[in-house]
TrEMBL record:
The keyword Isomerase applies. It comes from the Bacteria. Its EC number is 5.3.1.30. InterPro entries: Deoxy-glucuronate_isom_IolB (IPR024203), KduI/IolB_isomerase (IPR021120), RmlC-like_jellyroll (IPR014710), RmlC_Cupin_sf (IPR011051). Keywords: Isomerase. This is 5-deoxy-glucuronate isomerase. GO terms for molecular function: 5-deoxy-D-glucuronate isomerase activity.
Amino acid sequence: MSELLLRHKAPDARGLVHRVTPESAGWNYVGFELYRLQPGQSVEEATGEREACLVLVGGRADVAAGGQRWENIGERAGPFDKAKPYSVYVAWHDHWRITARTPLELAVCTAPGGDGFATRLIPPEEVAASVRGKGTNVRYVHDILPEGKPAHSLLVVEVITPGGHWSSYPSHKHDQDNLPEESLLEETYYHRIDPPQGFAFQRVYTDDRSLDQSMAVEDGDVVLVPRGYHPCAAAHGYDLYYLNVMAGPKRIWRFHNEPAHAWLLKA
């Protein structure tokens, strides 16, 4: 199995399903955790030198962070409910606690923090929605923490790709610190499939093919993108959701399209 593919598994006693750290991934910036909590179950962490974005992928919860409290937030049961998520940005040197009101799917997205950013709620009405692509390249985007919103390092976005469609395509990459043409951003993909017995494909590859891995992705899997192009394809009949976490030395998303496929943008 690819070392870039982290298979879904049953939650542990704390509800933890996935944990990606810079040390485990062999990179410098992005961290990702996924929890599945039962009603009444809580999880809490201190951010330390990192900032966090808590995304309620599905379910309702009480959230306390930065001396603030938001009760019974969350409007969707899961990511395919055609609703935008509730999230909470937590600044560095802060602490957060979440208690599930219903079965809760919680993503904890982290990256290096910095001064000047306040812990805050990101309600659905502050999440911009857009449509990208055309034909079988159409997908639906929710910008949870884009570069235009305050944070030190984190960029967080979720995407729904209909069955039979492509996403993160035409193939693009962002692995060079070469602004304004391209930014260096590590990235994780947390995948969900609807119905859950389905599958999707993701390929991660570089121009020289020193990295070239193709993966069959199942419901609940995580894919690491340390560098290279990283397109996805959703099998016919199965919608694909993914939550992206990106971070790098500069908080800006500038990507480079693979030259061989750039003609598709003009077709």
